[in-house]
Amino acid sequence: MGKFLKSCLNGIFMGVKPWIFFGLFIPILFFIFHPFDPVVVFGVSMLVAVLFLVNKWKKEMPAAKKATEEAEKAGVKFVDIDPEDETKESPIKRFQNKFYPLLGSSILSACMLSCSYQMIHSSATQRERKAALLGLHEATPSGEGRKVALADSSAVKEWNINNIEMVHLADSNQYVTNSDSILSQETVDQMNAILNELDSIGKVKPAVVICRKLSNGDTYRTAVDLVNKYGIGSRETGKGVCIVVAYDQHAYTIAPSRDMEGELPDALCSQLGRNYLQPYLKNEQPDSAMLSLTQALCQYVLDLQKNAGDESALSALKDRGIFSGQSGMNMLIILLLCMLLGYYDNLYKWTKPSKKIAPAANLQEEEEPDQHEKHTVKSETPKPQDKGGHYGGGSSGGGGATGSW
Predict the structure, then answer these.
(1) Which of its termini does the chain have fewer beta carbons within 10 Å around, N or C?
(2) Rounded (5°) CA angle 251-256-262
């Protein structure tokens, strides 16, 4: 058993060299010039390997066979295997001892190429999907949108978590608290319709607050405290998001609940704000800003859930273990090929020791490598009225993104 294990480890070591070239260099090079489908890459690489090996067999095998026959007729005695001197072996045996390792290495290299390329392709595809969902370019506001100027600071009411009205608790179809009537009623109605879809279909409970001025001037602290005080989030999934905009103070925060942070990490919240809020807010167009953000957020979450549903079958397979899925199958084949290469290398002595190397008995075995080693507010869910909605499923994990313009 120890000898077999040593042979397997030797085969894996033999596979390191082709992996550097076929598992790293070529896949990256392929992907830079053209993102081919991984199946095409594997098929082409296997075809090239087969053509190369067939050509080598046709060219060198007849010559080796002829040289062996002539030497035997001349009375030369050959051995099948000499672990230290391959010149004692017949020409045909020497050719076979070089061809068969080349055959195994070629198949191994093709599998490595396919496996590595599949991983690169999947990673890049996922990044492209997220980029497409969020949009790569900032919105370009036009001069036709409704503009709202800043107000006289002395006449502006200051808001905080105690006097901000959470309209959803009184009416389950309302999600936008338009404290100082900065947004038009038409915009508020459109946003409520979109956010209702996010709530009912996406199972994400949203809350939007836009006002002119906050008493503490801190949109992040206000958003986090609102999430914790009212438990902003779905009771089914715990997912929710709170958006707070202090218009006259030029600040905003997009804060997901703790259970929503996986789908809305800080970087994506920041990108949403940069792409959809800032361009319009700089142009004093709060209606366009809030509506574009609401549309983008809803579309992103629903598309993300749809893609997750489309990949549920593959995810189920992957959850069963590491050797599942296309990449997992390639990894299994690679491991088996490495073990076979090592086994047959030990059996037929394909790898000859150098003359300068001491006998195998005096070699020291390789040593095994060392083993390397918030501020919260207690949730108090108000009792909903007859037509009121409810929160109570979310809590803040401190995530989100704050921006200014």
Answers:
(1) N
(2) 130
